[in-house]
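Progress note, sequence design subtask.
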C-alpha cells in the first residue's frame, strides 16, 4: 500500500504517522476571552480515506463527545490507514453554557456552509468548513435527543443517497431512519459536495447513556473497517440482527396539560390506538386523559419529564413496512446488547 503524504490543516503540517492536537481559533467571548475548537488528527503512515467524526453540534450533546474520547484511545488506531479527524466539541459556546444553542440563541446546524463576514453562527460554520470539513471523504455526526428526551439508537440518512445508505447499514445501529436534509444543515452541504454524511442520534442531552455510547463506538469502527482504515479482526463477530429501515416518524403530543405517566418504554412496539400515557390533573380537579398511538409503530423517542403542557411532544413513533418483523429484530438487538452488558 502507498505511503501517506503530509497533511496541512489549520496552518499545521502533519506528517505520516503523527498524532496532533489542534485548536481552531473562534470568535472571542464578549469578555475578550479566547475560544478554540479542539481538533485531534491521527495521520496514518499508509494512505487511505479521511474520516471526520464530530460531536456536540448542539453544545449539550455529551454522549458524542464521550464516544470520540473512547475512539481516540483504541489501540487499533496505531495501525490506521488514512486519516482520522475528530472534533469532540463542535459547538464550544453551547458546551460552556450547557445549552444546545449559540450565545445569540441560534442553532449552529442552520448556518452551513457559512460566511466569513456573516453572523456569529455563520462565521463559525465558515471556518469549520474551510479548515476542517473540506478534508473529509466521509463524515459522521454524533448527536443525541434534546433535553429530557431519550432517543433510541438510530442513524439518520437520505434513502436516495445510496452511498450514505450503505454506510448506514455498515454502522448497524438498530434503526435507520429516512430523514431529508434541512436548509442550512451540514447534511445539506455535505450532500451538495457529494461527501457521505451520517447522523447517529441516541440518548439524551446532558446525560451519559452507556448503551448509546457503545453502539456509536462500534458503529464508527465498523465503518472504518469497511473503508479499509482498520484491519478486520481475524474472528468476525456473528451478527444476530440487521439494522431496519423506518419509513416515517411522527410525534405524539400531549392532548392536555398535567402529569404524564408513561405506559410504554423506549424501543417498544405499539398498536394503533394503544394507550401510551395517561395525563392527570395534578390538583385532582378533572379526570385523567389517555394519550393514544395514532398508528402502529415503535417508540424511538421518549420524554422523560412527567410535567407536560398541552401540545408538548411526549413520544416519537417510527413506522416500518413490516412492523412485526421490525419489532422482532429490535427485540433481538435488545437481548444481544443486554447479554453483552451483563458479560462485560
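Output:
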Amino acid at each position: 500500500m502507498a505511503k501517506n503524504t503530509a497533511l496541512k490543516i489549520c496552518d499545521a503540517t502533519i506528517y505520516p504517522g503523527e498524532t496532533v492536537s489542534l485548536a481552531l481559533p473562534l470568535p472571542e467571548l464578549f469578555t475578550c476571552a479566547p475560544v478554540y475548537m479542539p481538533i485531534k488528527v491521527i495521520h496514518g503512515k499508509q494512505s487511505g480515506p479521511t474520516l471526520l467524526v464530530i460531536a456536540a453540534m448542539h453544545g449539550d450533546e455529551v454522549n458524542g463527545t464521550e464516544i470520540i474520547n473512547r475512539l481516540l484511545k483504541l489501540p487499533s488506531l496505531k495501525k490506521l490507514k488514512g486519516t482520522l479527524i475528530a472534533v469532540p466539541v463542535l459547538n464550544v459556546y453551547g458546551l460552556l453554557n450547557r445549552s444546545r444553542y449559540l450565545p445569540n440563541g441560534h442553532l449552529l446546524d442552520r448556518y452551513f456552509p457559512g460566511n466569513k463576514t456573516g453572523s456569529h453562527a455563520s462565521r463559525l460554520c465558515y471556518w469549520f468548513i474551510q479548515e476542517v470539513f473540506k478534508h473529509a471523504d466521509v463524515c459522521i455526526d454524533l448527536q443525541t435527543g434534546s433535553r429530557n428526551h431519550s432517543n433510541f439508537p438510530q442513524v439518520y440518512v437520505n434513502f436516495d443517497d445510496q452511498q450514505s445508505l450503505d454506510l448506514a447499514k455498515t454502522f448497524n445501529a438498530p434503526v435507520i431512519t429516512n430523514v431529508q436534509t434541512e436548509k442550512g444543515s451540514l447534511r445539506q452541504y455535505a450532500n451538495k459536495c457529494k461527501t457521505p454524511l451520517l447522523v447517529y442520534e441516541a440518548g439524551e442531552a446532558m446525560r451519559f447513556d452507556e448503551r448509546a455510547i457503545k453502539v456509536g463506538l462500534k458503529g464508527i469502527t465498523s465503518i472504518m473497517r469497511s473503508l479499509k482504515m482498520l484491519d478486520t479482526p481475524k474472528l468476525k463477530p456473528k451478527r444476530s440482527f440487521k439494522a431496519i429501515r423506518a419509513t416515517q416518524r411522527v410525534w405524539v403530543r400531549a392532548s392536555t396539560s398535567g402529569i404524564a405517566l408513561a405506559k410504554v418504554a423506549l424501543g417498544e412496539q405499539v398498536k394503533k390506538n394503544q394507550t401510551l400515557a395517561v395525563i392527570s390533573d395534578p390538583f385532582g380537579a378533572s379526570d385523567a386523559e389517555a394519550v393514544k398511538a395514532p398508528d402502529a409503530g415503535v417508540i424511538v423517542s421518549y420524554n422523560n419529564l412527567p410535567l407536560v403542557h398541552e401540545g408538548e411532544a411526549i413520544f416519537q413513533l417510527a413506522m416500518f413496512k413490516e412492523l412485526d418483523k421490525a419489532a422482532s429484530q429490535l427485540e433481538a438487538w435488545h437481548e444481544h446488547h443486554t447479554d453483552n452488558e451483563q458479560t462485560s
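The chain has two domains: 7-226, 247-343. Work on this subtask will continue into the next period as scheduled.
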